[in-house]
Specification:
By secondary structure, this protein is an alpha+beta fold. The chain folds into two domains: about 30-45 and about 70-160; about 160-210. It is about 50% helix and about 25% strand. Strands 1, 2, 3, 4, 5, 6 and 7 form a seven-stranded antiparallel sheet that branches. It is elongated and about 120 Å long. It starts with a helix and ends with a helix.
Length: about 220
């Protein structure tokens, strides 16, 4: 009946929407059968190892706060830092659509949530002024949400080139292998040079001893 036709049309429309490729893939002339499409729930949580409210050292910032930084003033000030931004906790929860183009080994990711959930626990201090939590957390969460929607939009999904990642990995491994080989070569060369010097010294000492021996004195007479 008409109800079955309407249901079939809705099902076909949902299928077309699901199989729709992002503009980047369409411009490349990719075919839908070359692409694996997935839907994933993303829940990312990052927690700092540095306690908020403290003044960490540079080493602590590098080790425990990948998103924290401190700008120190050269002139004298009541507070030791000019600007301090500390991230205690970051959590992002959202639904994403993923297109994996198998022949080119490229992954495209886009948010399909109209309102992705972002939570921040930060501390911002400008010289001696401490910002209220409504600016520190709520405003920065709103900014973070807008940044995510811009980076992972349906119109221009975020691209992850697996081939490029593999090339960079191989390049790094090759550089590390060459560095290790050079280190071993330098060590072996140093040992060889030291052994050669000892052999030369021993040969010189041997010649001096032969020159002073009685046999040489008789031969000279």
């Amino acid at each position: 009946g008409d109800g079955d036709v309407g249901a079939d049309e809705k099902k076909a429309a949902r299928l077309r929407a699901w199989n729709a490729l992002p503009p980047q893939l369409e411009e490349m002339g990719c075919k839908s059968e070359e692409v694996v499409i997935l839907e994933a729930a993303v829940d990312v949580s990052i927690k700092s190892a540095v306690n908020p409210g403290t003044v960490p050292t540079k080493e602590e910032v590098l080790a425990g706060q990948p998103f924290g930084f401190i700008m120190r003033a050269k002139c004298g000030c009541l507070h030791p830092s000019l600007l301090k931004v500390q991230l205690a906790h970051l959590q992002v929860t959202a639904m994403m659509k993923i297109w994996w183009h198998v022949p080119k080994q490229a992954i495209y990711m886009a948010l399909i949530d109209d309102d992705p959930k972002t939570e921040l626990d930060t501390e911002i201090r400008l010289c001696c002024i401490e910002f209220p939590s409504c600016i520190e957390d709520q405003f920065l969460s709103w900014v973070g949400k807008k940044v995510l929607q811009s980076l992972f939009s349906i119109e221009k999904p975020f691209k992850l080139d697996l081939n490029e990642i593999e090339k960079e990995k191989e390049k790094k491994e090759k550089a590390e292998a060459e560095k290790a080989w050079k280190k071993q070569y330098d060590k072996l060369k140093e040992q060889t040079d030291r052994a050669t010097e000892k052999l030369i010294e021993a040969a010189v000492e041997g010649l001096k001893t032969d020159a002073k021996s009685p046999r040489d004195s008789c031969w000279k007479k």
